[in-house]
């Protein structure tokens, strides 16, 4: 089989670029082991986890504001999650029909033979596909470290996966890890009425995030976090009871009993077989790319989690589109991804978001900036929801007053940050933000209030 472009992976890093290429007349073959569009985000990641999160947040607000005592049946939540996933799978199938003349989706496992040839293992044999260009968008998967009893632990894929058999949860749950997936899941399950604790190897959580943001967020979460407590072993001691052994950081072995252990110890790139032999990789095994998504081979692009630049679906979509445009310009870069303008949200309850250059980075870069802040206790939406913790911070370049970065902890953070991302991407100034009339009452209107503080 011959085609113009081979896309390995049908998630956010793959199908948006494939659609754009098909719209311009390119013949595209998409290869994916699931045989569906949506990737891990739809199968076990952002869509199912945020479906469960939104329900958990509704329960949390009901119990606080209306003095309810709700603890919903987790199997009912999982049923709704599955329905949302099914709706989106059907939606993607309909989208694919529009491109039936230019896109062929093959269910199979891809192996790179060279930079223009892919061998695909399908259900009843092997086929070979040749293409002028190649986009690798194979995503990432949870890291599951090996230690005694690790086979008894689950990962986020087991909890959120499409039609997962995990429909009921025990009252006591232990999560191992201190990254955003660990904290998000901990607050989701806590809001649903489960007793949750975190075992963290080091003395910090959310490493890599701005320390002031983290220090503002953590007190609002109310989580039981056991720092300097690396896990050592899991023993099964009952039908649904486990003993977890961990170190207290001083060489002492301690234990606790729990009904479920979830490992949230990071993610690693998924590389198609043969990729390591022809593509340059970074120290963590990601495919190395520049800002045009081009690899060390001029006709091969890598997008999404597999390149390690920004492990988020919306970032993968942006990368996928950039790769498509650069293929359309005969591999001469004409579209570059600005990673600093891609917003990031930690979907805890309550959430936190950031975009752009943070103060610690600005100081390292020698950028002089002016800070403006606004406490959410003065925000009408925060008052309405009785979620008055948190703060919005804006950072403007001194002199030009261009917005270079922002973060927000608290109600509607994930919505507010999109507007701030636009401002960072397009170089908007404090005056631009101050003069825009966001609707009242919305948390977005705090952007203008905050910007006015520097004028």
TrEMBL record:
Domain FAD/NAD(P)-binding: 4-319
Record bears the keyword Transferase: no
One term of GO molecular function: dihydrolipoyl dehydrogenase (NADH) activity
Cofactor: FAD
A Pfam family the protein falls into: Pyr_redox_dim
NCBIfam families, sorted: PRK06292.2-1
UniProt name for this protein: Dihydrolipoyl dehydrogenase
Taxonomic lineage from the root: Archaea, Thermoproteota, Thermoprotei, Sulfolobales, Sulfolobaceae
